[in-house]
């Protein structure tokens, strides 16, 4: 029988407000160590100490996991949020006439557990739950199959985790592009993922602000397509690399 893998997900909050989250997909022998690591990560988050940490562990059959290649990466020089705006809107203009509207969402919406979903044709938000967004979950990098890599310090994981997320979103049906600005106050680098390439952009926001969110731009926004997008992003197990 194929070896059972486990999806481990952590969510930390304070007074009901989301502070941080993380997840891994690992073999059974790593579960206890990874769970301990994720608790420690939640307790040391720069947004403060949570009053609730929930870690959920779920068995996965290896045959249920999709393996994806890593995305090609471009590093775009950027000195300020003003310059980031020009870079982001120029990239998004390849797939939607509403790139400025999307930049405005990035600057004004924060605190969602998931991503906004934007109809490329109208520029309107179409995710069913506007307070939550659509979560991309159940994913990891292939290197997490090594315990040493899976438990290394967060400073070494940040870029890799973003690229895993972007790879999963990019593989989702109907997705044209994704933009991310982290809501962590100490992390100001974001990205645009479009046409299979991950564009890493420094200084997308000023340091010290909790403003941050993710936007997914889709080619279809009918009920059937949105259900397919949500099911894939939230439930399909993916390992990248």
TrEMBL record:
Listed GO MF terms: 6-carboxyhexanoate-CoA ligase activity
E.C. number(s) listed in UniProt: 6.2.1.14
Catalytic activity: heptanedioate + ATP + CoA = 6-carboxyhexanoyl-CoA + AMP + diphosphate
Pathway(s) annotated for this protein in UniProt: Metabolic intermediate metabolism; pimeloyl-CoA biosynthesis; pimeloyl-CoA from pimelate: step 1/1
Known cofactor(s): Mg(2+)
Signal sequence extent: none
Listed name of the protein: 6-carboxyhexanoate--CoA ligase
């Amino acid at each position: 029988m194929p070896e059972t893998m486990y999806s481990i997900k952590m969510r930390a909050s304070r007074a009901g407000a989301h502070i941080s989250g993380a997840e891994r997909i690992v073999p059974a022998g790593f579960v206890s160590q990874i769970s301990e690591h994720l608790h420690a990560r939640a307790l040391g988050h720069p947004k403060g100490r949570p009053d609730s940490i929930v870690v959920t562990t779920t068995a996965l059959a290896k045959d249920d996991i999709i393996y994806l290649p890593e995305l090609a990466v471009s590093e775009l020089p950027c000195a300020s949020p003003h310059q980031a705006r020009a870079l982001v809107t120029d990239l998004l203009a390849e797939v939607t006439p509403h790139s400025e509207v999307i930049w405005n969402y990035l600057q004004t919406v924060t605190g969602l557990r998931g991503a906004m979903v934007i109809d490329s044709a109208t520029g309107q938000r179409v995710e069913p739950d506007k307070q939550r967004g659509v979560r991309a979950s159940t994913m990891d990098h292939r290197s997490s199959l090594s315990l040493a890599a899976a438990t290394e310090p967060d400073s070494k994981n940040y870029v890799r985790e973003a690229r895993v997320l972007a790879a999963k979103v990019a593989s989702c049906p109907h997705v044209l592009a994704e933009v991310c600005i982290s809501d962590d106050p100490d992390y100001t680098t974001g990205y645009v993922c479009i046409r299979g390439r991950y564009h890493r952009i420094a200084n997308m926001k000023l340091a010290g602000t909790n403003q941050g969110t993710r936007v997914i731009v889709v080619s279809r926004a009918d009920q059937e397509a949105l259900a397919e997008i949500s099911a894939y992003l939230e439930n399909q197990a993916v390992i990248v690399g």
